[in-house]
Amino acid sequence: MRGSLRQLELIVYACFIQGVSFCFQPLPNGILTDRVWTNGMAGISYLATSLLLFLLTVFILVCLFRTTHLAVPSYHFQLYSSLRLFGRAILPALGVRLFFDGINFLLTWLLPSYAALFLLFTEAACLCLVFAVVGAVMHYEKQPFGPRRRAALIGGSALLAGIAVWYVVRFFSDYNLRVYSAAKYAAYDLAYETTTDSFRLQLLMLVFMSLLWSLLSFRYTFFSVERKKHDKNKPYGSVFVARILALLLGMPFLAMGKVLALPHGTISRIQRPYSTVTHMSGEKHFNATDESWIITRKVSYSSSKIVLDETKVRIIYGNDCLLTFAPAFGNRDLWKETSIPDLKEDRITKVYRYGFNAIAYLSDEKPVVWDIHQINKHTQQDENLIATMEYLVEDGYFEAFEYSYQYLLRYDPAFILPYIEKYAKGELTAAEQEKNSYLNQDYMLNFAKKIHI
User: Fold this and answer.
1) Is the pTM of this model over 0.85?
2) Residues 236 and 182 placed together within one structural domain of the fold
3) Which of 90, 288, 296, 405 sits in a 20 to 30 Å window from 72, CA-based?
């Protein structure tokens, strides 16, 4: 039991190193990456941080393999022995790391748009090979698989496969959205959005690599040997808990030292602001509440850049949340509430538009909220919805036309057909061009031309 706890402690240390790596600089933690070639202190900072983290990782791995040797009289750290074995293992492990850094560099050069897709798999292959190399240096003897070990490996492998599929799906989802948004929005910052999408992928990579570390530890060391009984008067469990708590308590001091000495790449701020827009309607009211996660990383000693700005907007009526949506590429100006004048529909009152994400109103004193992006998929005729969207299309908003033309073709083709022809010819008035100035003109023209009636 004591040996298993010792191995579990080392696995916790390894996962901790993965988390620290993510907090201290963007993943992956290659030693020779494009970040290292940054001019000045930034490159030195990234190189020093990556090298130090890799050395700690290999040292923990050496200690992990040492717990499988029954010849060792104690499961406490034997610093001299561990350092001697570490010296034998570091060069082969470093060679593996640099080899995969070269592969990542080639992928970034040859396939810049898809390099992030392959990073997860190259990093996984690197870690597997480092385990194998260190195991060979430590003269690891393969142990038969017991039922517990086999169950852990099967379950962990299935979970790893699920995370890998999630990673691939997320990559293509983000990539396609970036391509679409870059073509549509005039003010779209492709480099910024690529950075924020990369941060989300790095979170998945962090979970994947931590789980892979644990799985490989089970594969090579955990449950691999029969251990001697130890003195029950010297329980290891309390020592294990104390060391883990000390590790967690020491994290703030470690982060402070990194920020002061080598700040580049360190997560410097996590902010979660709120804002609320309220409109009274009878005894109840609509609330539009946005929740934004803003995370920044240091780019120098005195400045930072945003790596994640994720906004979720909730439309609430009374105590009920009626709709949650994410504004277009985090632009809060594109979801601000706007009141729509009287639509001359007796049954609807207090109509509000939240950019071109949602519309909300009271119909027969009941709250109704529509996700504008889903209107074309709606199959039931709704006079209130038709009146609202026709008002917005007539007022010159292209996105109202884009998200409702199929629905209006089904239930009021006489209204929408002239607008399809108008946009296909690019015949916008000066006022309409002003209202749609945040959109690319070519996108509007090409979109309308592709509509098949």
Assistant:
1) no
2) yes
3) 90
